[in-house]
Amino acid sequence: MPYLAVAAGGFVGAILRYIISEWVGTSHGFNVATLLINWAGCLALGWLNTMTSERLPIHPNIRLGLGTGLIGAFTTFSTFTVDAWKLYQVGQVGLAYLYILLSVGGGLMFSYAGYRMADGMFRTRAR
């Protein structure tokens, strides 16, 4: 059953990534879609992990399907690295480094924001 949960979530996540990538696209070689998708995934996974670890226990297969499946397939580290490399190869070195900084730094900030959102929701409900 865990495999099915990951597969189902992965199917949905991959389709969502494709739709958003097609809709948002790139700007001057800068893959805005991948950046926004990865930021959203960091926020969602930070929130999900915080909410489901102790605060809102859900079935492990559902957590696996949402986290590893849906969010894992929605986000893409490989596309991020290829995009950064492409920028570097065409001489847009500054833009490549900016993309890396925004992706990693922003990802950490959005993960933390997801944690804080879930933590705040839990504290509000506890009152």
TrEMBL record:
The chain crosses the membrane at residues 31-50, 62-82, 94-115. Pfam families: CRCB (PF02537). It is a multi-pass membrane protein. GO terms for cellular component: plasma membrane. GO terms for molecular function: fluoride channel activity; metal ion binding. It comes from the Bacteria. Its main location: membrane. The keyword GTP-binding does not apply. The keyword Flavoprotein does not apply. It catalyses: fluoride(in) = fluoride(out). It is found in: Cell membrane. Na(+) binds at residues 72, 75. GO terms for biological process: cellular detoxification of fluoride. Na(+) is not transported, but it plays an essential structural role and its presence is essential for fluoride channel function. Keywords: Cell membrane, Ion channel, Ion transport, Membrane, Metal-binding, Sodium, Transmembrane, Transmembrane helix, Transport. InterPro entries: FluC (IPR003691). Belongs to the fluoride channel Fluc/FEX (TC 1.A.43) family. Fluoride-specific ion channel. Important for reducing fluoride concentration in the cell, thus reducing its toxicity. This is Fluoride-specific ion channel FluC. It comes from Alicyclobacillus sacchari. The gene is fluC.
